[in-house]
Automatic annotation (TrEMBL):
Every HRDC domain range: 134-214
Entry-linked PROSITE patterns: HRDC
Domain of life: Bacteria
One protein family per Pfam: HRDC
Name of the molecule in the record: Helix-turn-helix domain-containing protein
Organism name: Draconibacterium aestuarii
Keyword Coiled coil: yes
SUPFAM superfamilies: HRDC-like (SSF47819)
Keyword Transport included in the entry's annotation: no
Keyword list, A-Z: Coiled coil
Coiled coil: 6-33
InterPro entries named in the record: Helicase_HTH, HRDC-like_sf, HRDC_dom, HRDC_dom_sf
């Protein structure tokens, strides 16, 4: 949004809030407050137009052709969420244009939010055009481009906000026949189709009729399912690194994990009998730890540490208990 537009909206919004407070002080029953309803009607028309021009059209025209996939994904999600919120606001404005009713307002806003999310989940789009150089139907291309420029001049907005170059190329390649097929064109959302769809279809129809061109189905974009990588067994990774000769400290540093985590990984394999507990514990200390846990019903490391104090570490307690559990499994 341009700074001037933002400043204008903020100024109008501040004045509007002050007026609302004044009207409500005079009559708190908003649904039966005639001056308030009249003011809401005017405000709804104003803010509806401003949201369309400054938010909906620029966002739906935004080119997210970014190399960084993570940034692109985050931007796309942010724009989608903002558009959902905007559609909800627009639905509220539509209700207020013909009067003010709390129930109707909430119902329409809820419906708009659900409809937008549902459309987002179910949306199908045309297969993107790979060859952007060899454009079919050059006459139609020129006609649509000229029409786009004319509309942008009338509206005082850049041509790409009417529809993008990619959308223009898809239009002349796929030649949509109706509003339903127009929705498949990448970059043409519901609002753009509402504003410009009829004109676009009329131009394409006239061109096809004049040149006796038959139109077929639009190929859809394929969304191959990503194969889920098998989840890495993190304990096994630590085990294999330890078996290769690395110390717990080295494994922790290389894997960006704490030493305690690595100890718990290796204790798992002590319990399975795949690692010798004496690799980590002296025989005498092992006997003390196992003797303690054998007589304790509650195998709490906290209580065990309090019992042994600094004589035994938490890691040694874990190894000792794992060894004891391995014996009990036999």
């Amino acid at each position: 949004m341009r700074i001037s537009a933002k400043a204008e909206l903020q100024e109008v919004a501040d004045k509007f809030q002050n007026q609302l407070r004044k009207y409500l002080e005079e009559n708190a029953d908003a649904e039966n407050n005639s001056p308030l309803k009249e003011r809401l009607e005017k405000a709804s028309n104003y803010f509806n137009e401003k949201l369309e021009i400054n938010i909906v059209i620029p966002l739906t025209a935004a080119d997210l052709d970014i190399d960084n996939k993570t940034v692109k994904k985050q931007l796309k999600r942010t724009i989608e969420n903002l558009l959902i919120e905007t559609e909800t606001k627009l639905a509220g404005f539509e209700v207020c244009k013909s009067g003010f009713n709390v129930k109707a307002l909430l119902n329409e806003q809820a419906k708009a939010s659900l409809d937008t999310k549902s459309a987002k989940a179910k949306a199908k789009k045309a297969k993107p055009i790979q060859d952007l150089e060899n454009i079919p139907h050059p006459e139609l291309y020129k006609t649509l481009r000229a029409w786009r420029y004319e509309k942008s001049s009338e509206s005082g907005i850049p041509a790409y906000m009417i529809f993008s170059q990619k959308a223009l190329i898809e239009l002349v390649n796929y030649l949509p026949v109706d509003l339903k097929s127009l929705q498949l064109i990448n970059g043409l959302g519901a609002k753009k189709i509402e504003h410009y769809g009829a004109d676009i279809l009329q131009i394409i129809q006239l061109y096809c009729d004049s040149n006796d061109i038959e139109r077929g189905l639009i190929p859809l974009k394929e969304n191959p399912k990503k194969e889920k990588k098998p989840r890495e067994d993190t304990k096994k990774v630590s085990f294999e690194m330890f078996q290769s000769g690395k110390t717990m400290e080295e494994i922790a540093k290389e894997r960006a994990l704490s030493k305690n985590t690595i100890e718990s990984h290796l204790a798992h394999f002590v319990k399975l009998g795949e690692l010798e507990v004496t690799t980590f514990l002296e025989e005498a200390k092992l006997k003390k730890i196992t003797a303690y846990f054998e007589k304790m019903e509650n195998k709490s490391f906290g209580e065990a540490k309090a019992h042994f104090g600094d004589e035994v570490s938490y890691g040694e307690l874990r190894m000792g208990l794992s060894y004891l559990e391995s014996l009990q499994k036999e």
